[in-house]
Amino acid sequence: MNTGPVEIYHERRVSDLGVWDYGDLHLKVYGLLATGKTVSKTDLSTARNFIADEVLSRVDQMGDSNGLGFVIIHPGDLGISIAVHWWVQGSVLCQHIYRKEYGSNDPMDTVFLAVDMLAQDRPLHPPVDCDGNAQITGVDDHEAQSVA
User: Fold this and answer.
1) pLDDT for 58
2) Cβ proximity of 70 and 28 under 8 Å
3) Cβ contacts of residue 10 below 8 Å, gap of 6+?
4) Under a CB-based contact definition with an 8 Å cutoff, are residues 35 and 10 in contact?
5) pLDDT of 116-143, one tens digit each?
6) How far apart are CA 55 and CA 65, in angstroms?
7) Is 41's pLDDT higher than 90?
8) Residue 73's closest CA among 51, 54, 106?
9) For residue 137, what are the CA distances in angstroms to 3, 109, 114, 120, 131?
C-alpha cells in the first residue's frame, strides 16, 4: 500500500470527552479531529471495545499500574486511530494503538507495523522464515540475510 505523501502537520481541534473508569484504571479521553471530522458514536464504541478487549489485559500483564492514563481518539484523514496510554512504576508510559483505514474491514496490526512504514510498503520488523530466523534486508543491495 502506498497512499502517497502525507503532510506532516495540519492544525487539529481537540475535544475533552471526559474520564472513563475501568475498575482501578481511570482514563482521560480526548478527541483529536482532522478537518471536517468528528468523533462518532461508532468511534466511541470502538474505543471502549478496544480498551475492554485488548488494553485492560495488557495493563494487568504489565502490573505496577498507577491507575491513570489517557486515550486519544483521532478520526484522521486516512482512518481512525485510537491511542491508549497508561503509566506504570510511577513514570513509565505504556501504550497500545488501534488503527483502521476508512473502508477497510480489519484494523492494522500496530504491534508489528508502524503507520509510517506502511506508507513506504516495507515492514518495520524483518520477516521471519519458517524456522523463526529473522530475515534482514540490506539497505543498499536489498539482499536478504539470515540472522541466527
Assistant:
1) 93
2) yes
3) 34, 35, 77
4) yes
5) 444 554 444 444 444 445 544 443 333 3
6) 12
7) yes
8) 51
9) 23, 21, 17, 15, 17
